[in-house]
Design goal:
single chain; alpha/beta; globular
Length: 304
């Protein structure tokens, strides 16, 4: 990209997995790093299983925040329960019912337990989806799984014609080539209690995912990537305290791994996956000032 553009330096904005790509690039070519921003940061110090456990905790935190918001709205909340724990139990009971008996979804397609959990996860990627999650859970409890199934389709890249993007296939291929870890059925079963403890709602969903690379035909590259980048220009690393997919702790781990004087940590106290696309003025201005004018924000800056 840098050569095609004819740039002396690579100016880069990476979000989610793009932060890992950016970190590895900075390690390999520190002198070629221009103005770079990492948002929704993957923890480069976590192994594949540690990353999955981190996601279980992250999605659980986001779900709890959603449930707390619902409870705080009192009678306006469509879900049963006067505490976040009661709303969580309502969702777990719904998952268990769907495991035994799927319900009507879209057309002749039914909503299964896995698709429902997938849809719940999708809705936690942005606070703007919380009303849809509330409505979808309420409708599913009444026997209509169409909204949760539509959310699941969005996560899987499925359009209304039944065609799928290559999003999930590409994710699988990239992750299996990146990471060395391969888990057997017995090894996966042994880790499930750990995942269930981390998240009563998403533990099984993410725990069983450990087997995803078991039969991948080529070996993975590393346990964790090296992102140390001594001599690189400052890289702004943004952590979102409510991020379900790339938990907040990953930002500090990335900033520290990049090295002193390189990783510049910025915190956004908010919800959803990523901060720059949240609409928060403080985050947007800090990023824009750096990318456009080269003004590095003070490390430790907090945006609310």
């Amino acid at each position: 990209m840098r050569r095609v553009l004819g740039d002396d330096k690579l100016h880069y904005f990476g979000i989610s997995y793009g932060t890992e790509l950016g970190g590895v690039y900075a390690h390999l070519f520190p002198k070629n790093v221009g103005r770079a921003v990492f948002d929704a940061v993957v923890d480069p110090t976590s192994t594949a299983v540690e990353g999955s456990l981190g996601q279980a905790r992250g999605f659980q935190l986001a779900f709890t925040n959603f449930a707390e918001d619902c409870v705080a709205r009192g009678d306006a909340c469509q879900l049963p329960g006067s505490t976040p724990e009661e709303i969580q139990q309502f969702v777990i009971d719904l998952q268990n019912r769907l495991e035994k008996q799927p319900i009507p979804g879209i057309g002749d397609r039914e909503l299964t337990q896995t698709q429902a959990t997938n849809g719940i996860a999708q809705a936690l990627y942005s606070k703007e989806y919380w009303p849809l999650l509330e409505q979808g859970l309420d409708e599913a409890d009444g026997g209509d799984g169409s909204l949760l199934l539509a959310l699941s389709d969005a996560m899987n890249g499925r359009n209304r014609e039944g065609q799928y993007s290559n999003l999930q296939a590409a994710n699988a291929a990239i992750n299996c080539v990146d990471f060395k870890e391969r888990y057997s059925l017995d090894q996966t079963k042994a880790r499930l209690p750990e995942f269930r403890k981390a998240s009563p709602v998403f533990g099984d969903y993410l725990g069983w995912g450990l087997m995803g690379c078991k039969h991948w035909p080529v070996p993975g590259q590393w346990e964790t990537p090296d992102v140390s980048a001594p001599g690189a220009a400052p890289i702004v690393v943004i952590g979102n305290t409510g991020d379900p997919a790339t938990p907040y702790e990953g930002a500090r781990a990335m900033a520290e791994a990049l090295g002193e004087g390189v990783g510049v940590e910025l915190t956004y106290e908010g919800e959803g996956h990523g901060a720059y696309n949240s609409g928060n003025k403080c985050v947007a201005e800090a990023v824009d000032r750096y990318l456009l004018n080269g003004k590095v924000p003070a490390s430790g800056t907090v945006c609310r």
